[in-house]
């Protein structure tokens, strides 16, 4: 009986080590993001050209994404403040849809830390995964406040949404139409 108990403990310990190695290796995030192969289909760089600027969206197969906005270092952000690059993680929420949680740092006059903006993006892709249509909503939280804490209170009047924005995949090797 003692031998069986010891073997069970050894098997459980080996299983725990294997699970920990899987989580630490990053394969767990990839497995979640690749659910249904979506990560492989949407991974890439996308561009949105707007009347007053442009936006670049980078989606990784492993569940991460980032945005660069042409207005981010001007006083054109929420509450007239500037902000840093936007970083976050995505998960599959539909057959051709992902939802991402992101953060960026907000600055008053481009230099004084103003707070952390937390934004939720929903991106729906076309049949060929060449175009993504994005919507968002978010809020800015003051310094010292974790925006993901259940009792976090945002800065007054800092709620924002973005209109539907269409991103187009950048061709591999930057092929430009002639």
Account of the protein in words:
This protein is of the alpha+beta class. The protein has 2 domains: about 1-35; about 35-175, Lipocalin. Helix content is about 20%, strand content about 45%. It is built from 3 helices and 9 strands. The protein has an 8-stranded antiparallel β-barrel with strand order 1-2-3-5-6-7-8-9. It starts with a helix and ends in a 9-residue tail after the last strand. The model is unreliable at about 5-25 and about 25-35 (pLDDT under 50).
Topology summary:
Layout: H1 2-25, H2 27-33, H3 38-42, E1 44-50, E2 53-59, E3 64-69, E4 82-83, E5 86-94, E6 97-108, E7 112-125, E8 131-141, E9 160-169
Antiparallel strand pairs: 1-2, 1-9, 2-3, 3-5, 4-6, 5-6, 6-7, 7-8, 8-9
Summarize the structure.
This protein is an alpha+beta fold. It has two domains: 2-33; 37-173, Lipocalin (Beta Barrel), CATH 2.40.128. It has helices spanning 2-25, 27-33, 38-42, and strands at 44-50, 53-59, 64-69, 82-83, 86-94, 97-108, 112-125, 131-141, 160-169.
Keywords:
alpha+beta, Lipocalin, 2 domains
Percentage of residues in DSSP E strands: 35-45%
How many structural domains? 2
Structural class: alpha+beta
Q: Indicate the low-confidence ranges by residue numbers.
A: 4-24, 27-34
* CATH fold description of the largest domain: Lipocalin
H and E string? HHHEEEEEEEEE
Number of strands: 9
């Amino acid at each position: 009986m003692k031998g069986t108990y010891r073997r069970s403990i050894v098997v459980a310990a080996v299983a725990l080590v294997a699970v920990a190695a899987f989580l630490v290796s990053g394969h767990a995030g990839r497995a979640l993001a690749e659910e249904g192969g979506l990560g492989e289909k949407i991974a890439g760089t996308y561009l949105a050209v707007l009347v007053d600027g442009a936006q670049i969206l980078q989606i990784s197969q492993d569940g991460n994404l980032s945005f660069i906005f042409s207005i981010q270092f001007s006083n054109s952000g929420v509450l007239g403040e500037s902000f840093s690059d936007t970083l976050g993680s995505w998960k599959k929420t539909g057959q051709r849809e992902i939802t991402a949680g992101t953060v960026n740092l907000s600055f008053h006059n481009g230099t004084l830390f103003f707070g952390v903006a937390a934004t939720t993006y929903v991106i729906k892709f076309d049949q060929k995964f060449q175009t993504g249509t994005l919507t968002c909503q978010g809020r800015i939280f003051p310094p010292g406040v974790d925006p993901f804490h259940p009792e976090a209170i945002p800065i007054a009047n800092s709620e924002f949404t973005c209109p539907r924005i269409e991103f187009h995949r950048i061709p591999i090797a930057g092929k430009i139409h002639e």
